[in-house]
Amino acid sequence: MKKLKKFLALGLIASVAVGGAFAAKKQKTIKIGFNIPLTGDSPKVGEGAKYAGEIVKSEVNAAGGLDVKGTKYLLEFVYVDNELKADSAINAANKLIDIDKVLASIGPEGSGRAIPAGEVYNDSKVPMITPWATNPAATAGRPYCFRACFLDPFQAPVAAKFASEQFSAKTVAIIYNLEDDYSKTLAELFKGEWESKYGKVVVFESFGQKDQDFSVQLTKVVNSGADFLYLPCYYNHVGLITSQAKDLGWSKPVMGSDSWGSADLVKLSKGAVVGDYFTTHYAAKGATGKTKEFIEKYQKTYGYVPDDVAALTYDAIYIVLQAIQEAGLTGNLKKDRTNVMKAMGNIKSFAGVTGNMKFTPDGDPIKDAVVVKVTPEGEFEFVKALQP
Q1: With bands split at pLDDT 50, 70 and 90, how would you rate the model's confidence at 25?
Q2: What is the pTM of this model?
């Protein structure tokens, strides 16, 4: 019995030693947070962001991790739901910073969440990059805040110019979401550009976030004689507005913005958006090179073509990873956050799946927009590139 006890004791010591050896060899990790809407009015936005994150993580970790000055680090992603609400985005930011101790944050995606949450990240000195927030306020005066998309002061003028030429239009009706910073700002920018260069805005109507019936606004649009309708709204509202407009007899063109780009757009509109145009960040149909590779990988994994949110999130993550590689890691979280921020600010150019981009001192990329047309098959077909 004594021999058996001695044998078991030796075995226990050996197993502890082996376990300790494995623990000692455990690979280092880099923790990055995602402040995204997995629930709420636009869950497809959060889904695309998370799926893009999973693809990046699998690409990097399958290769043994991210090489940071000779040391490999596995990626660890923390996804927190902001419910497409400003207060939830602030809470998510605080959780990622203080509880999860992330090195950097991807998102929030949209301007209505990126603007308030960005203040938290900047005050806490944690680098944040928003893939999809086009309102200038998301990064202005915030050295720790960056973005991977173009800005609305660029999107509005190029959209107005395209609509004027494409539709031979002189008058426009505009409907926007009064409760969303992105929609309201873009509507105002488009209105100002149109009135200064192209013609008249004959209807300028708003709605609330929870509205479902747009008959009052659309009746004014139909009766206005406008040459086209401009809808700088999220895809869930676009689906309702365009289908209701069709029911009221609207058959003229509709021009949209980058918030249209969801795989659910055609389904939610009951096909009403087919033939319409919108400005966006990349065109999936006809893509080549690394963009095509990303699309094929995403489609094979998740069963549908990635929207611009997914593509921009994919680029945003790799911008952060490039900055980490250039900055190096010391193990001091506070110091590493600041070093990564500085490295992000020093990135002069980046070749992403949404195009090549250069960065301004404010952390904003200078890049092309594209116009796509919604096909009967529900695809977003490239029409034209729009340069800054």
Answers
A1: low
A2: 0.88
